[in-house]
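Following up on my earlier thread - several people asked me to post the actual chain instead of describing it. Fair enough. Here it is, all 294 residues.
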Amino acid sequence: MDEKTGMPLKQDIFLEAGVHIGTKIRTSDMREFIFKRRDDGLYILDLRQSAERLMAAAKLISKYDPQDVTVVASRIYSGNPAKKFAKLTGINIIRGRFTPGTMTNMTCKGFTEPKLILVCDPKGEREALMESAQNGVTVIAFCDSNNETKYVDYIVPINNKGKRSLALAFYVLAREMMMSQGKIKSYDEFTYDIQYFEELLEEDKVEEDISEPEEETKKEEKAKEKKTGEKSKEEIEPKKEAVKEHEKKPVKSEKKEKVEEKSQKEEPEDEKSAEKAKEEKPKRAEKEETKKKD
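Reply from S.P.:
Thanks for posting it. Predicted structure:
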C-alpha cells in the first residue's frame, strides 16, 4: 500500500502496467471513468478510480464464501492470471468460452449457481451477464472505455485487454483476499509478484508447445500447395500457347475444299480436250491445202 496516494501499489507500477490505457472508443456508460483523450485518439482511464474500485471489489469478494464466487475469463490474457488467483484463494473459475446454460440449465455440464461473479470482459462474456441477471447474481466487471455496463453491478475501470494490466489486477485481488482470509497477516508475507500472475502455467506451456508444431505443419502444407500451384501453372501455360498457335493457323472452310475437289476433277477433262485439239490441227491444215489446189 502506497501511504502517500492511498493506492494498493505505487502509481508508477500502475502506469508501467498500462492499467489506465483505454481504447479509441468511449461508450456513454464509461464517460465518468475517463480522465482525458490523447492526441492519438486513445481514451485514458482515471487511474485513481481504477485503484479505489479495485480495492473495493476485493473487499466485496472477501465477504462471500470462495465457493460462492466464480471468475469468468474468456480471453487468454485474463484466463492465466485468473487461474492463479483462483488457485490461491479457492474461488471457482470458468476459462474460455462460457457455455450457454451454465447458470440456468441444471443438465448442462459444469452447471453452477454462484452468488457473485467477476467478469473480465463484458463484451466477450455477455452470456454470463445475461444469465446472472436472470438469477439475480451480483456482477463485478473489469470494464474498458469501449464496454457497455448493462447487467453490471460494480464497475472496475481498467484496461481489460492488456496482459500486464490484468496480471496486476489479479495480483491486487489475490493479496487482499488472502489478507481477509487470514492466510497472510501482512503484505510482506505475500511472496508472489506481478510477474507470477503474468507467466504461463506449465499446462498452458504444454498446450502452446503442442499448438506450435501444428502451426508449422499448416505452414508447410500451405507452402507445398503454393509450389504445386506454381507447377500446375507452368504446365498449363505451354498448353495455352499451343492452343493459341493452333487458333492462329488458317482453317480451310468446307466450301473452299469442295471447290478444290471440283477443280481437281475438271483437270483431266481439260487435258483430253487439249489433246483432241492438237490432233485436229493437222487435219484442218490438210483440208485447207486441198481447197487451194482445187
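The chain has eight helices and seven strands. That should answer part of your original question.
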